[in-house]
User: Fold these one by one.
Assistant:
Number 1:
Amino acid sequence: MTRQSKLIALVAYLLVLTVVMLGYRTNRAAKVKRLRTELASTTLAQNKKRAEEAELARLTRLIPVGSDTPAFMESLYRCAHESGLKQHEVATETSGQKTSARPGAADSGSVTKHRIKVSATGNFRTFAEYLRRVQNIERFNRITEFKLAPDSGQLRGTITVELYSLPVNNGK
Amino acid sequence: MNTLIIHIRETSLQALLSTDGQLSYCRTFDFEPRTGTDSDETGQGQHREIHAQAVDNPYLIYYDFDEKRNPWDLAFKTVVKQIFSDIRDSIDATHLIIPADDVVIATHQLPKMSRQDAEKMIARKISTESREEFPPFSIIPAASDQKSQNWYSLYVPTSTLLDYRKVFSSARLRLSSITTPVNAMIDAFRSVREAIFNSHAVFEIHRGFVEAYYISADGLLHFQRLPYSGSESSRETSPEETEKAQKFKLFKIIDTIFKINSHYQTAHPQIPVQMAWICGLDSDLDNIATALKEAMGLEVAIAPAMPTGLKDESGYVPLAGFASSLQNGTAVGYSAADLLKRFPLRKTSGVIIYTLTTLAALLAFSLTEREYRQLNNQVKQLKQSNSAQKGRNNASASSAYTKSLEALKKLTARQFVFYDLFRELANDLPDGVFLEDLEFRLKDDKGLLGITATARLSDNIGESRLLSRVMVMLDKSPTLANHSEPVITVVSREKDRYLKISVTSEVSPLDKTK
C-alpha cells in the first residue's frame, strides 16, 4: 500500500466516519428533542391530572355521595357537648332539595341540599365556641341562618345548617 | 541576499557570507576549554596541537567545560554575536554543514539499476537499521563494474538535525538547509568533475585532521578521515626549533596522506589518481603540495579549483562549494520528514488513529443511544401509567364529580367564619354597650347580619361618645361591610331607659376552603 493510498484511505475513513456520526447525531438529536417534548407534556398532563384527582378527593370528602345526615347530627351533638351548650336540639327540615350543579343537568350528578335545624341555649362564649367547632367539622356545611336572642337571662340560639351530597347513579 | 554558511567541526566553527553569490566574508572560530579540563592523557598531544594553531587566531573562544554538551554548542551564541558584529548586516538565510562525525557514511554494492531504485533499496536498509521510517539521507555513486554499482549513503539521524535546528533557534537563527561536508566538497569540485577521467584526490588539512575525498566524474570513490599527530612541544621559541617542528608536522601530514592513498589503491586498484588537490587552514599548504608532488609523482594543486577572491580561500573550500551549489540550486539538503509525511502513515500511529477515532465514534454512539433509550423508556412508562390511571378513573364513580367540578369548587370556596365575628364583638364592643340580638341569614350566597345592642341612657352619652364608638367599631371591622344606617330607639326596661341600636351589615367571607 503506497503512502498516497494510505493517506486517501485514512481521509476517506475519517470523512465517512464524520458524515455518518453527524447524520446519526442529527437524527438522534431530533428524536431526543421530540421525546423530551413528549415527556414534558406528558409529565405536565400527569401533574395536572394528579392535581385534579387531589381536588376530586377533597371534594368527595367534603361533599360525599351519600347524605350521611345522622353522622353529621351526631357531630353537632358532640360539638354542643364540648362547647357547653344546653338544651341542644337538632332536627332535619323537610326532604333534601336538589340544586343543579350544571344548568339543565339531570337528577343524578346534581348536588343535593340537606337542611338541619339546631336550637340551643347558652351564653355568648359557648355559642362562639359551638359555631367554631361546627365550622371545623370535616364534612362541608354552611350555616345559612343564625339567630341569637335573650331568653330568661340566657341566650337562645337557632341555627340552620345546610349539608350537601352528590348522589351518583352507578346503575345499581 | 546575504547567505550565511556555517561549517561546524569538532573544535572549530567556520563562517562564510555569500552576497548574491559573491563571497564577502569568511572567518574561523576556534573553541578552547577554559583551563585545567583536559586530564585525558591519550588526547593530550592532539589537543595541544590544536591549541598551538589556535593561538594565532584572534577568534579563539573559550568555553566552560561541560561533558554533556558540545564545545561549539556552549560557545555558539558568542560566535553568532561575533559574526553579526563583523558583517554588520542582516542575514537572509543560514545554511549549515555539520561535522563529518555526525554523518553515518556507508557503502552499498547493488546490481545495476536506476538511481531512484537504488535510493529506495538503500532507504529501506537505512530505515531498518536506524528504525526511522523516513531517514534523512542521500546517495552518491561510487565505483562500478559491468554488473554492479557501489553507492555511498550519507545518513544524518533526524534527532541530530533537530538538535542543530534547536541550537540555531536558541541563537535566533533559522536554518534554511543542512548538508554534509562530503556533499559540500563534491559541490566545490563540480566545475572540474567533467574533466576527470579516473579520479581526483582532495586532501583537506584542518586542525590536526586530514580528510580525503577521491572524486570521480559522477561521484565519490573513497572518503577517509585520519588524524595526524603534531609536535609534542608547542612552545618552541628558537627558529631552529620552529622549523624542526614544522618539518615534523609536514612529515606527519604526508605520512597520513600516504596511508589514506594506500587504502584507496587497495580498494580501487583499477582507478588511478590523476591529480591531487590540497586545501585547509594550514599555512604551509605550498610546502605540503611540493612535498606531495615529489613523493607521489602526481600533479598537485591548491584548492579551490575556481578562485573566489577571498583571503585564505583554501581554508573554506567546502563552504564555497556549498554556497555555489545553493546559488545553482543543486545543493543536497537533509531535513526531517515533515509532519504530513510522518503522520499518520506509520503503522503504530495509523493504528492508534483508527482505534481512537473508532472508539470515540463508538463512545458517542453508545452515549447517544443510552440517552435515547432512557428517554424512550421514560415516555413509554409514563404513557402506560397514564393509560392505566385512565382506566381506573373510568371505572370509578368520580365522573359525576368531574362533571360538577367547577360548581363544587364554587360551593366550597369561601364562607363566613362566625368565630371571628364573635371575637371581634367581644373585644371591640365599647364598655356599657350590650349585645342583645344577633341574626344571620344567607341569601343568594350573600350573608346578612343584623346586630342589636343596648346601652343604658345617661346624661353623659355626649361626653362618652358611645354611639360614635359603636359606629367606629362597625366601620373598622374586617368581617362586616356595607352596614346600613343604624336605627336608634329608646326603650324602657325595669324602670330604666335604654338606647337600642340596630344595624344590618353584609359579612365578608374570610375563610378559605377546607
Number 2:
Amino acid sequence: MTAGPALRRVGIGRALGRVGLSLAIAFGAIAAGAGYWQVAESTALSHDPNDAAVIAASRHILRGTITDRDGNRLAWNARDKNGEPYRVYASPALSEVIGYSSIQYGNAGLEAAWNAELTGAASPDPLQDLTRKFTGAGPDPASLRTTLVLALQQKAVQLLGSDKGAVVMLDPRSGDVLAMASTPDFNASAVTNPTTAGRTFAALQSDPADPLLPRAIQGRYVPGSIFKIVTSMAGLSSGAIDLQTTFKQQPPAEKTGLLVDGFRVRDGHHPGTDGTALDYDQAIEVSCNIWFALAGLRTGGTQLLSTAQALGFGSSLPFDLPTVASQVTNGTGSFEGGFKDEVELANAAYGQGETFVTPLQMALVAATVADGGVLMQPRLVLSASNTAGTVSYAPTVIRRVVSNEVASEIRDAMVLAVNGSLGRPFTAGAAVAGLDVAGKSGTAELDPGVNPHSWLIAFAPADNPQVAIAVIVENGGHGSARAAPIAGSMLKAWQTWAGQ
Amino acid sequence: MTGQVTRQATGESTTGESTTSESAGRVAGMAGPAASRPVGLDTGLRPRFRGRELLLLVIVGIAFTAGSVSLGAEQRLLAEQLAGQPERLVLVPADAGILVVYLAALLAAHLALVLSGRRTDQVLLPAVGLLAGIGLLLMQRLPQRLAGNLGGLAHTQLVWLLIGLAILTILAVAVRGDAWLRRYKYTWAAAGVGLLLLTFVFGRDVNGARLSLSIAGVSGQPSELLKVILVVFFAGYLSENRPLLVEESTRIGPIALPPVPYLAPMVAMLAMALGIVVIERDLGAAMLFFLVFLLLLYVATARVSYVVLGVVAFIVGGAILYALFATVQERIDVWLNPFADPNGTGFQIVQALHAFARGGILGTGLGAGLPTIAGRPPIPALHTDFPLAALGEELGLVGILAILGLYLVLIERGLRIAASAPDEFRALLAAGLSLVIGVQAFIIAAGNLKLIPLTGITLPFISYGGSSLIANSVIVGLLIALSDRGPEAKPPAPPGRISRLRRRLGGVP
Amino acid sequence: MDPTVLAIWVIRLLFLGILYLFLFFVVRALLRDLRSAAREPVRELGRLVVLASPSGEPPAGSAFRLDSVTTLGRDVNNSVVLEDDFVSATHAALTYRGRAWYVEDFGSTNGTFVNGHQVTGLVAIAFGDELQLGEIRLRLDRPRE
C-alpha cells in the first residue's frame, strides 16, 4: 500500500469539502430563517400587541385622543407628578366600550383593540408605515373619532341604573354603534390614574357583580320572545310560513298545552284572542309561544340554524371588540340542525331551549329587519387621524339575510306589536310620541322562582329606520316592565339628538 | 554514484556518526557566508509584511468607527429627544476610549504577527476583529448595568477582548510544534473532565443550569474551554487510529458496524463530557460537543455510516432526555409553538422573533431599536444568548447576512488550513477547531430564529462573556499557528555554491 | 428630509456597506487562494523513485509525486511511509524551498545518507541525488512535465 497514506489524505480533503458544504447549507438555512422573520413575518409581528415596541410605545407616548361622533372628547391624557402620561375618560358610562389603557393593568376595550393606531406603532395608512420606516420618524399616534354619541351612552347607563343589563343602539344603515352600555360600569379613570390604580383594580376584580364584563358583547342571555323575529325570518324566507299561516292545534293547545314528542309546550291565555287561530301578525302582536313552536317545527331546525348563522350566530361577530358567539342550540344533538329533538327545536323557536344571545347580536337582528334584510358590520370607529391626515372607514355590508319583502312583513308585525291594541300591553313604554316605533318584547324565562330577564328590541322610524336598539335588564321581569320603558326613553333621547 | 551505504547496526553507529558529522561540518564550513544563517526552524526576528491583513484591518477600523459614530449619533439624538431639547446632529463616536483602545489592540496584534515573520493566515485576525467589534458595539449599546463589574457591560467586554487578543497573538506567534497537544491528549482530556466535575460540585446555578465556576473571584464557564480540549483529544486519537477506524469493522451478522474496540476510548470520553454537561443542563454545549465529534469522525474516516449511526444515537438520546428532563420537554414544546404562551415559557424566543421582525431588511440602526420597558430591554439574556436577535433588529437582515458571511469566512479559512495541513493530526485539529466555531454559531443563531430548539450558548466573538471570548481566541490563535506554511522560499543560492556542494557530495547531475 | 435623519441614515448604510466591503475583499482573497491551491496539485515539484526496498513496502520501482513538504518514516502519518526496520518513525523530510530541494534528518537512529554521505540538519540536494534511509534507497527525479 505505497500510496495508502496519500489516498487517505485525499479522503480527508474530500470529507472536509463535504463538511464545509453542509455547514454552508446550514448557514443558508439560517439566512432563510432570518429572511422569513425579518421580511415575510416582519409586518405581522411588529404590529402585534405583544410586540415590545408596541408595549414600550404605549408607555412612553401620548396616546391619541378618542372622541364621539360629534367631536366630544371621550378619552385624553393627563400627566402625573413624574411627567408620565396617563389616561382620563369623560365618563364611567364609557368604561365597558372604550375600556382603559393602564401601564400596570394593560389595555381593554377600544383602547386595546386600536392600541397600535392610538400609540402610533402602526399608522392607519399602511403607506405611511412604510415611509416612516425609511425616514426614521417616530411613532405618529392617531386620534379616533368613534361612532358613539356621548349623551346617548350616558343616558343608557343612567336608565339601567343599579340594574345589571345592557343597551345597544345602532344605526341600521351603517352598523354604527351609537351607544353600547353595560352595567354595572366602573370608573376607568381610576384604573388608569397611577395613584388610585392598584386599589381600584383589585376591588373591581373581586366584585361579584363582575363590572369588568362588557355584558353588551360578552353576556350570553336566554332571549325569550325577541327570538321569534329570528324564527320569523327563517320561516317567512323559506316559505314554511306566510302572513296567512294559522295552526288549528294552536287554540286548543293554549288551554292544554301543545304536546310535542311527549312534552307539553305551555302558554298563557292571550286576552282578546282566546280561542282564535292566529295569523302571523297576530302571533307576533300577542307573542304566541305555541304558534311559534309550531312555526319552528314546520320551518325545520336546519333552516332556523342557517338563518341564525347568516345573522351572525355561531361565531364571534366581526367587530372592533371581542364578542362571544350567540347560539341557537348546543349543536350536539342528532336532530336536524344539531337540535337534540323536536322539543328543543320547538322551544328554541320562541327563544327558550338552549338558545343564548348577546345583546349586540339581538341589536343586529333588529337592525337587519330595519335595513330591509341586510346585515351591516357593527363598528365603533368612523375615522382615524394623525399628522399624515385622516383615514375614514366605510361601512361594510356583511350579507343580505332575508329579502326586502320578508323584512317589511316582519317590520309591519313589529309595528303592530308596539302600536296594535293587542300588542301594546307587552311593549308598554316603548312607544314614543312623534316616532313610529317597531319592536318586540321578550321575557326570558329562567329557573322557577327567578325573575325573568326583561328584553326589548326595536327600531325607528318604522317607515325609514335610522336607529335600532336592544335592551336587556337582567332579572328585570316582563319585557314591558323594564326593557320597554328604557328603550322608549332611549329612542326619545335619540330623537332629540337626531333632531327628528 | 559512490553512495554505498552500509547497514548501520547500533554497535557500529558511533564511528559512522562521528565521521559523517565531521563531513557535514565541512560542508557547512565550505558554504562560507551561509554558515552563519540559522538552519531549521527560524527563531530569529525576521519581520514579514502582511499586506492582506493590514488592508482588511484598515477596513475593520473604518467599519468600527462608522458603527461607533452611528451609535453615538443615535444615542445623542434620543437623549435630546427625551430632554426635549432641539435635535442637533453631532457626529462623534459613542465611546472614543473604547474605539481607540480596541483598534490599537488589533493593530498591536497585527504588528506582533508581522514581527514574528511567520507565513500564517492573514484573514482570520481581521474577521475575528470585525465580529468582536460588532459585539463590542452591541455591548456599548445595551444598558451597561446588565452585567460586568469593570464599569459596565462594554468596558468588561473590552477587557476580556484585550485578554483574548493577547492570547490569540501569543498562540499564533509562539505555537510551532504540536507535540505538547498530540502527546498529552489523555492528560488534556482528564483535565477537561476534572474541570467540569469541579463545576458540577462547586458551580453556581445560572437560570437552572449549572454553568459557572468561580475561582478567586473570577467566574467562568468551563464548558467553553472543554470544547477546545475535546477537539485536541479527538484530533489526537483519530489521527493515531485512523487507518484502523477506516479499514476495520465489527460485524454482527451481515451488518458492518464501526470497529467498536477502536472507537471505545473516544466514545467514552464523549459520553463523559456529554453526561456531565447534560446533568448540568448545559444542553447547548452537549449539542456542540456531539455535532463536532460526529463531523470530525466523518472527516477522519469519510464513512457515512458513522454519521447515520450518530444521528440515530442523537435521536435516541434526545428522546431519552425528553422523557427524563422537564427542561428538555419545555424547550422542545416552546420550540414547536412559542406563541402558545408568549408571556410565559415562550417569552424569550417570542421576543427574539419580534426583535428580528422589527428590524426588517435594513434594521432600525444601532442604538435605535430594542425598546425598553421600565428601563429593561425586552429579552433578559440579550447580551449572552440573543445578541443575534438584537443585531437583527438594529442592523436588519442585511446586517445578519453579513455576520453569517463572516462566520462562513472563519469556517472556510479553518477548513482550508486543515486541507493543506502537513499531517493528519494538524488537519483534524484545524478542522475540529473551525467546526467548533461554525457549529456553535449555527446552534445559537438557528436557536434564536426558531429553526432548532433554543439552547443557551454564546455566539462566538459577539456574545458577552470572558470564557467564551478566551476559548474562541485560543481556537483562532491555534488556527493561525497551524496555518504556518513554513519558511519562505529562499532566494536561489549562488550557483557556484551549489555546484561546489554537489562536487563535494560527489553527485554529478 | 430632515438633515439630521438623513445623516444618520447615511452613516447606518455606510456601516452596513463597509461590512460588505470587508466581505468582498475577503472573498477575493479566498478565491485567489483557491485558484493558487487549484494550480498546486497540477504542479509536480519532483518525483521520488524507489530504487531498492528489501521489505517491498514501498516496492522497488514505484514513484511518488512530491509536494513542497514530504515527510519520510515508518509512522503512518508520514506522506511517504517506509516499512523498514532501520527507518525511524519520523525519519526525515524533503522540502522544496523556492528553487531547490532540501533534505532534513529528524535525528533518526540510523541516519539519512545523500549519495553515501550522512547528513545532519538541512542540506540542499539536486535531482538525481540518491537518498538512503535504512535499507531503502530512493532517487530524487525531475518532475514530469
Number 3:
Amino acid sequence: MIAIKSVKHNYNGQQQLSFKDWNIKDGEQWLLLGESGSGKTTLLHILTGILKPAQGEVNIDSTSIYNLSSKELDQFRGRKIGIIFQRPHLIKSLTITENLLLAQSFAKLPEDKKRIDEVLESLDILSKKNAYPNELSQGQLQRVSIARAVINKPALLIADEPTSSLDDKNAEAVLALLMQQSALNNATLVVATHDKRVKDAFTNTYSLA
Amino acid sequence: MSPLKISWKSLWSKPLSAWLNIMLIAFGTGILTILLLASTQIEEKLNNNSKDIDLVVGAKGSPLQLILSSIYYIDFPTGNIPLKEANELSRSPFVKRATPLALGDNYNGVRIVGTDSNFVSLYGLKTQSGKFWSANFEATIGATVAKEQNLKVGDTFFGAHGLTEVKDVHDHHAYKVVGILVPQQNVTDNLILTNVASIWKMHDEGEHEAAAVAHGEPGHIHTDDEHAEEAESLEGKEITALLIQYRSPMSVAMFPRMVNQMTSLQSASPAMESTRLFSLIGVGVDTLQWFAVLIMLIAAISVFVNLYNSLKERSYDLAIMRTLGASRTKLFFIVILEGLLLTIAGTIVGLVLGHFAMEIIGHYQESSQAKLTGRIFLNSELYLLLAGLAIGIFASIIPALQAYRSNISKILAKN
C-alpha cells in the first residue's frame, strides 16, 4: 500500500509544484503519465525517498518514509524499492553477478547467488552472469537493470521512461518483462512515461497536469 | 560485496593510473627508506666504533683524517709519531689508558694493526678460537676476516705494504694466525691484530732485503736506516697513533690543549669529528629527504586528482549505489578506502624496494669497514607506513566528502 498525501515541492526555491493525492494498492500496476518538464521525475524521486518534499507525506508499506533517518531511508529504499532508469546504468568495474550482489549487500540482505541465477534465468541473460557491463548490448543491459531492481523482492517497482529510447518491438518486450517481473515478485509497479505506446497496457493512470 | 572489494575492483578498472600512483608513492617511500637505513647504520657504526675512545693522538694533519684512519680504518693515516713522545703522553696523569696503533700493511685489503693488550681491553675483545697474539708475527684476526679470507688458526699469510694494494708483498716473514675473535659488530671484525714490533720488523728487514720499498707516503712505518739494527731502542721508532681514554672528565679540558701546544702532535676528538662529518653529510641527506618528501607530495596530489576525476565520472555510479541502499557513510568509506589502498600499496612496495636497494648498495660497497645492509628493520619504518596512511586519507578526504554530500536526486535527474 503506497500513498502520497498533500505533497508539495519547491522547484528552485520558488516555483511550487503540488501533486494530487495518490493511493496505490498492493500488486497494482500504474502508469504515471506526463509530458517532460511536468514534474514526473520529481514525483518519482519523492516516491522513492531520494528527494524530500517541502511538505506532505509519503507512505510505503505503512512506513512514513521521510520520518526515517537518512541511513534508515537508504536501507529501506534498498530493500523495498526497485528502480529502473531510462538508461541502464551498471557499475562498470563489476561483473553482472557482482552488480547484483552489490544490490543485496547494500540492502543489508544476505548474499544469495541462487536468487541471482534465478532472476537472471527468468530474464534470459543467465549466460552473461560473469560478463562485465561493457560486453553487453543495450537491450541486455536493460534486462540486467530490471534484474537488479527486482533482486531483493521489492514492494514497489518503479520504472522511469523505460521505453522512450527503444523501438516499438523492444519497448513492447521491456514492458512485458516489467509486468511479468512485478507479478512474479509480488511488487506494485509504477511506470512513468510520456510514451503513448505504453498507455493501453495499463488500466490505472495517474496524470500530471 | 564488502566496501574493500568494491574499492579494489574500482581501482583496477583503471590499472594504469593505479600503477602510476603506486609507483610515485613507492619511489618517495623508497628514497626515505634508503636514507633512514643508511643514516641509522652509519651513525650506529660511528658510535659503536668510537664509544670508549676519548681522544686520538697522531701526526699533524686533518683531524678528521686522523679519526677516520685510526678509529674507522677508512682513510689513510696522517703520518707517524715518534714512539718516545707517544710514551711520554701515555704516562701523563690525565690518561687512564693509551693504546698504540701501528698501521701500514694489509693482507688482501684487510688492514694489519700493530698494537698491544690495551687494544683488547679497549674493545672488550674475546677469542672464539685460539689465543691473542703475543710473540712477533703472531696474529689474531677478526671474525669477518676469518670468514672472508678463509683463514683459520695455524694458517700463515704474507702482509703487503700499503693499506689496500696487494703489490710489495713482505715475503720474508709470514704471519701466523694464532686466534680468531668473537664477532663484535664493529670495526675489529675486519682487522688483523699483531704486536707493534712485528710491523717494525717487517719493515726493518724489508729495508735491507729490498731497498726499493717506497718511503714517505703517509701511514707507512718509517724506520731510520741508521738505527735499523737497534730494534729494541726507542730512538727512531715510530707508531701511527695513540687511542686515549681519559682518567677523569677534567682531562677533556686540559689534555687536548696540552698535546696540541706542547708536542709536535695533534689530538682529535672522535665525538667532535663525527659530529662534523655528520653535519657535512647532513646537507646531502637533507636535500635528498626534501626531494623524497616532494615526491610524496606530488604522489598525494596525483592520488587526489585521480580520485577527484574518477569521482566526477562515477558520481552517477555512486548515486545508483545510494538508490540500492548504500548509506552516505558507506560511500565515504568506499572513496577513502580507494585512497588508502593506493598509498598503502605504494608504501609497502617502497619499503621493499628501499631494503632491496640498500642490500644491493651494500653488496657493491668496496669498504668492508662500513658495509651497509638492507636486511635490518627499524621501528621508524612504521612511521613511513603511518605517513602512507596519512597521505591516503589526506588525498581522499575531499573526494570522499563530496561523495558523502552529493545530491543524488540532482545527479539522477541530469541523465
Number 4:
Amino acid sequence: MNASMKRALPYALWLGMALCIWGAFFYAPLAAAFIGQSSRILFFHVPLAWTAFIAFFTAAFWSAVYLWGGRKARHDRAAAAAVELGFLFGVLATITGSLWARIMWNAFWNWDPRQTSIVLVLLFYGAYLALRSAVADREARARFSAVYALIGVVVTPFFFFIVPRITESLHPEPVINADRHLDMEARMFQVLLGSFFTYTALFLWMHNLRSRLMALAERAHAD
Amino acid sequence: MSSATSSWLASAVAVFAKDWRCELRSRYALHAIALFAVTTLVVASSSLGPLGADKSQAVTVLPALLWLILLFAAAAGLPRAFVHEEEAHTSAALRLAAPPSALFAGKLAYGASLLLGLEALIAPLYLALMSLDVPSPGLFAATLLAGGYGLAAGSSLIAALASQARGRSTLFSVLAFPVLLPLLLLAIELTRNAVAGQPAGVALPQLLLYDASVTVAGLMLFPFVWNP
Amino acid sequence: MQSVSMSFTGLTRRFGRVRALSSATAEVAGGGVLVVTGSNGAGKSTLLRCLAGLLAPDSGRIEHVEDGRALPPEERRLRIGWVAPDLAFYDELTTLENLTFFAKLRGLPPRRGVELLERVGLPADRDAGALSSGMRQRLRWAWALLHRPRALLLDEPFQNLDSEGEATARALVAEHLAAGGLAVIASPVPLEVDGVVCHLELAR
C-alpha cells in the first residue's frame, strides 16, 4: 500500500463509521417485536460483540506466532494490543447489551447466558492484563502472556457449552438462526453487514495504532 | 516401550517421588490444605447445618459449597509445588536436569494425588456433617475423581506461571479462577445430579473433555512457561 | 576423544532500562578455558545464564557443538555442567538423596552420586539444609559433574571453599580439561588457571 492510500484510510474509515451510524438511526426500519426504538442499539451492540471476538482470536493467533515463530517482540505487542481492544469492545458490547435489556426485560442485568458468558470471557482477559502487569521482564512477560492467551482458547469455549444449560435465555436468535433462515428485513441486514465490515476495519486500524504506540513506548523506556 | 518413553516416565516418577518425600518431611502443604478444608467445613456446616432439613434447598446449595471448599483448599496448597522451587532457588537445577514435559507430568501427578487424597477425607465428612444423601454414589465418586484431577491439572499449569511473577499468591487466584470456572460449573452440576438421583447427562463427557484438553494444553505449553 | 566447542557472538541482555550484558563475543574449544572477568554488575552471571539457556538473550547467537552437531537450546540446557552461587538443592533431602534424585532425572545410576560425594569430600547423610556455605559449594560441584558434561559453566566456582576444597575443585577442572572438555569461568578477580586460557573482560 502506498503512502497516499495509507493517509486516505482513516478518512475512509471515518466515512464508513458515519454511514453505519446514519444507517442505524435513519436507514434501517424498526424491528417488530422490540419496544419503541430499542432495536436500533443492536446495530452497535452486535458488531461490537463480533469485533471483541475477532480481537480475542487475533490475540490467540499472534500469541501462537510469538511462541512458535521465533519470539519476535512485535508479535507479542500485536497479541497484547488485540486483548486490550477486545476488552474495550467487549465492555462496550456488555454496556449496550444491558441498556437494551433494561428496556426489553426491565433489568440491566439478569444473568442471561450471553451476559454470563461475556462476563466470564472478560474476566479471563482481565486476568491476562493483570498477568502482563505482574511480570517485569519483557521476554518472560511475552512468553507467559502468550501461554495464557492460548489457555484461553482451550478453556473459554467451554463457557458456551455450559452456561446456556444453567440459565434460561431470553436473548433473541443470532443473526442467522439454527435453520439457516435469514429472519430479518433486508435493510436491517445491510446495515448490520456494513457495520460488521466497518467495525472490523476500525479494530484493525486501532490495533495497528496501538501496536505502534507500544513499540514506541518500549523504545522510549529502554533509552 | 521405547527407551525415550521409559526415561521420560522415569523422570516424571522421580519428580513425583521427590515432591512427596519433601512434602512428608516438611508437611507444609499437607497441613495448610487439610486444615483449611476442615476449618471451612466446620464453619460451613455449623452455619448451614440446619439447611439439611430442607431437601430442595440442600440439593441446590450444598454441591456448590463443596466445590468452593475444594477450590480454595486447592488454591491454598497446590501452587506450593512450583512456588517452593522458586523460593528455594531449586528451579535452576531442575531446569538443567529434567525434560520440561516430564517435570510437568510429575508435578501434575503430585498435585492430583494430593487433591484426591483431600477429597477422600473431606467428601465423606461433608456428607455426614450436612446429612446429605447421595442416591448415585457412582456418579458422585466419578465427579470427585474427574473434577479433582481437572482442578489439579489447571492449577499446576497456572501455578507454574504465577510462581515466576510478582505477587505470586494473589496472581495465582486471579489467573486460575477464570480457567477453573468451567470445571467448577460442570462439577457442581454433576454433584447436584448425583445428590438429586438424576443421570449425569452431557456434563460428564464435557468434564472429561475439559480434563483432557487441559492436560494436553499443559504438556504442550508448560515448556514455554518453564524455559526461556 | 570427546569433541566440544562453544562460541557466542553479540550477546546482549537488558533488564528493563538496565543493559546487563552488552554485545559479548568469544569462543572456546575442548581442552580450553575461557575466563570471564569484570567488575560487579558487568554481566558475568548474565552471560553464563544465557550460555546455560536459563535466560534468553535479547540478541546475539550461541553455538554449542558436540561431536560436530550444534545443540538446540533445550538440549544445551540438559548437557552443560553448572556451578553458580544461587544454585540450590532441596533442604529437606540429604546430600545423597539430592544427587540420587537428579541422577534419576537424567537416567543415571544412583552410584554416581556416592562417587562424587566422596570425591568432593561431603558426608552422604547430611541434610542439605544443614550444610555450611563451603559444603554447599562442594555439593554444587558434585551436582554439576553428575552427567559428565563436556562444557562446564562456572560462576565464581571457588567461593567459600577452604584451601583443600579449592584444591579439589581445581583438580576437577584440570581432569575435565585433560579429558577434552571446556570450561567458562566467571570471576570478579583475576584468576590463575592451568591450561589453554583465553580471557574476556566485560565492561559495565
